[in-house]
Amino acid sequence: MVIRTAPLRGHRQALEGPGFLARPDLQILIDLLREEGRRVIGPTVSDGAIVLDEITTLEDLPRGVGDEQAPGRYRLRRRNDERLFGFVVGPTSWKKWTFPALVPLTRASKDGHKVSFAPEPPDTAPVAFLGARACDLAALGVHDTVFTGTAYVDPDYAARRARVFIVAVQCTNAASTCFCTSMGTGPEVEGGHDIVLTELDAGFLVEADSAAGHVFMAKLPLRPASAAEQYGAAATVAAVRARIGDPVPAAGLHDRLLAQLDHPRWAQVAERCITCGNCTLACPTCFCTTLTQTTDLTGVDAVMYRSWDSCFSPGFAKVAGGSFRSRPRDRYRQWLTHKFATWWDQFGSSGCVGCGRCVTWCPVGIDVRDELNAIAPAVPLVPETKLVEPVAATPNDFVTARVVATRQETSDTTSLTLTGTDPAFAQGSTGQFAMVALPGFPPLPISISRFLPDGIELTIRGAGPATRAMCALQVGEQLGLRGPLGNNWPLDRAVGRDLVIVTGGIGLAPLRPVLHAIVAGRRRFGDVKLFYGARTPADLLYRDELERWAARDGIEVSLTVDRAGPDWTGRVGIVTHLFDQAVWDGANMIAFVCGPERMMQATATTLAGRGVPASRIHVTLERHMECGIGLCGHCQMGQYFVCRDGPVFSIGQLGDIFGREGI
Amino acid sequence: MNETAALVAALNTSWFATGLSEKAQTRLAELGRRFTAEPGTELFREGETSDTFGILVHGRVALRTLVPERGDITILTVEPGDVYLWSALVPPFRASSTGTAIEPIEAIIFDGAALRAALRDECELATALYPRLLVAVARRLYATRLQMLDLFATEQVKEW
Prior knowledge:
The complex is a heterodimer of chains A (663) and B (160). By secondary structure, chain A is α+β, with helices and mostly antiparallel strands. Chain A is built from 20 helices and 31 strands. In chain A, α9 (265-272) packs across α11 (328-347). Chain B has helices at residues 3-12, 22-31, 112-121, 123-148; strands at 32-37, 42-44, 52-58, 61-67, 71-78, 83-84, 98-101, 105-111.
């Protein structure tokens, strides 16, 4: 249902642009609305809070009253001015009038063997809302979609909603609990209202946004607002936006949250949550209801009532055999994932408008923003370094390069030094790969293991016919290349941090350029530790470089192998044993990990145990790739194309899809 | 510093014993003694009776298994802080691999029979030590599983 109406045509407006209304003259607006037969609902002080109730005069409004809000805390405080809207949202929301907590739906009666059911007519008495904020208007918009925007229209809501006139108020204050900016709903009032007021020291800036709004505006004793007043009003609202910031970065929140259904935090928050349902009652968009029946003493006449219910109620998901969400953690997860994720799938928007009521009115002070940031932390998807445009980007195109040196690294692995490569390759970034082709063989993604001024190096393990043919190339022979492709290791974010590099087998190849970059700018980084595991001592790559990094370049190199003969005096065991008992403070660390996926999982778990946050544990993934640019579809992993969005991802970004079977 | 206090300090450098109660550490120190060995020393032999339980403080011990036609294969190295020869506490008290010092080592060792008797008679010591031992054993078990997967192998895994 679209509530907004077109601007009135042919109506002679008293003013061009916003008007100014002296504070005492707001009474005239209240009187005009009441003369139309409307009950005016607005903020008023009651029981130590600013609640919404019927008002008749300006004296009912909270003159000079402000509020302080924090998780689990709400206090009124005296302001040193006369403002009528100098507070933020209180515990009540406007849904109390559009979607009351208790409404009679049907009257039923029994007459002998006959039964009859009569729908209860909805309350259509006109009302006016005075003082709705941007988040409140967004909440009404959410309800409009839920109750009137799908196949079945809720007649009670539709009738009540249609008779509402809205005088909105711009926010000139923010509470510590506000996060409309993150939810994209405020603080600026941008639609869904008839009139909007911005409170200034001496009165209000008034603007109309509907035909009815213009009619009322024309009847008010307005003077044109001065440029200073208009600027002051806009600047105040802009300051509110700046004060709130972006507490819950929403990009990708839907996917991030749904990828964390097994996060341990659900159990942790449930230890605090007392499942009282206060959040759902204070929430302006929660819409779940239950039906109750009352009968008279004879049992002849009955009324069916609809009342607010809460997904936190123990009986909410109950069937004969028990409840589908018996544990508090299940109910909390249901609420949070519905509000911030699955609501999008059902109604095309977030179910949260960022008003912060659930934060303030949670008796144990659970802050939904903290929970979201812990369970589904925001991770930048866009690489920070500007990556070079690849050459021969599309799969039909290749540039050629010539082998100028080969080096047998191990029994099955060879490094090829290539020159004559397109200049784009030399400008590639650590962790990127090339699609490499020989006539007659499928092109394969190969990590670039060294960037040279006039070429690159590729380290290839002969695991199949194509890679064996590449390993067998001789000096002077050519091959085809596309690239550099994919994203890079976030070295920019490692500057000033301690860096842990954990790798196994051929996994050192895509990390070798990282080590070269570190050596080139060693002082930009804190401690650098390289943990490298191989199958046997003979399978260790780049042995001369490993020695040099350790001896000369200030990199702590630890090696281990899975098995060894008696002549090996180094460590034997898995790579995580190199650091699983280390006494580290992982808080300042960033980790780059490359190896078989099972090894990376074990490593990520061990690093997380050392306190390295998931957003700073980066892995590079291997998947079947044919195009390298997100077109062939082979390398999909959940919502990502590994070639285009990766191959480097943080564990936080991957969430539950990392290491999950069959993804 | 008397010998017991010195051994408590040495125990505290190992992840195995650090964090144990002061009482348990002192009791362990009373039961233990210092041990050093040169590289190449065979500390215990696969299949033979284990009469010593050890906590490695410095150096490296290779655990090896003889595979016919492949010779002695090192399957794990014990690093400082970790325990070795815990078979002295688990029936039938026989070493499951051959342990060789591959660096100069320093350890705290315990007579197997005496430690077993203490663990049998002193509940407090037993409740402190056994969970640590279980952690050490579980850590090795998990590592062994990962090694068994042979993750770095080139060969394509064949269907079983």
